[in-house]
Design brief:
The complex is a heterodimer of chains A (106) and B (82).
Chain A (H helix, E strand, L loop, with lengths): L3 E2 L5 H8 L6 E8 L8 E4 L3 H18 L3 E8 L1 E4 L3 E9 L2 H4 L7
Parallel strand pairs in A: 1-4
Antiparallel strand pairs in A: 2-6, 3-5, 4-6
Chain B lengths: L1 E7 L2 H6 L3 E6 L3 E2 H11 L11 E4 L2 E3 L4 E2 L4 E5 L6
Parallel strand pairs in B: 1-7
Antiparallel strand pairs in B: 1-2, 3-6, 4-5, 4-7
The chains are: A alpha+beta (106), B alpha+beta (82).
């Protein structure tokens, strides 16, 4: 799965990447475009090579800290309409309580 | 003298009128020196904040980081939202 996408983020695809029959707990964080000051959407652009390297660095840090967890992150680029997700993070661990310590929402 | 590539993103690309360029700076030089040169070459970028977020060779750095010939400095607008 790519870390950057110009298509709507597929939560099902994220879950399929991290979940499995040995995974008892899953968390999903979504960052969505919200209605503020008449915003109808946000146009996202990125220094893609740098963004991918940074995302991989963060994921490596998370995997080192929580080796029991499968973690994936995807960020959307281009115009993201109001209410749709611009970023999604999914994490799944064998034991449900061990995933609760992953600060997805920090 | 060092020739440093400069990449502009989003609003900064609009201010510069391009998304890529290169500037020459006298060595030793820092990222801050490159940004000062950018403000001279691309007057529109004077509207950037005093200390814009910068990356040197794809790693975020402070403005006192030294640059070498062939390096790349990327200028990134601040993030917002959440």
């Amino acid at each position: 799965m790519t870390h950057l996408t110009r298509s709507p983020i597929s939560i099902e695809s994220l879950l399929a990447t991290v979940q499995g029959p040995d995974r008892g707990g899953t968390c999903v964080f979504l960052g969505t475009v919200r209605d503020e000051d008449d915003v109808t959407g946000i146009e996202y652009s990125a220094y893609e090579e740098m963004a991918i390297a940074e995302i991989e660095r963060m994921l490596a840090e998370a995997r080192a800290r929580w080796p029991d967890a499968n973690v994936i992150l995807q960020h959307r680029l281009g115009l993201v309409p109001l209410g749709e997700a611009s970023i999604a993070i999914a994490a799944a661990a064998r034991i449900a309580r061990s995933i609760c310590g992953v600060p997805l929402c920090d | 003298m060092a020739k440093v590539s400069v990449r502009f993103f989003a609003r900064y690309a609009e201010l510069a009128g391009c998304d890529w360029s290169a500037v020459n700076v006298s060595t030793p030089a820092t990222v801050g020196d490159v940004i000062a040169r950018v403000r001279e070459v691309f007057p529109g970028t004077q509207a950037m904040p005093p200390r814009p977020l910068a990356a040197l060779n794809r790693r975020q750095v402070k403005h006192d980081a030294l640059v070498n010939d062939g390096d790349e400095v990327a200028l990134l607008p601040p993030l917002s939202g959440g």
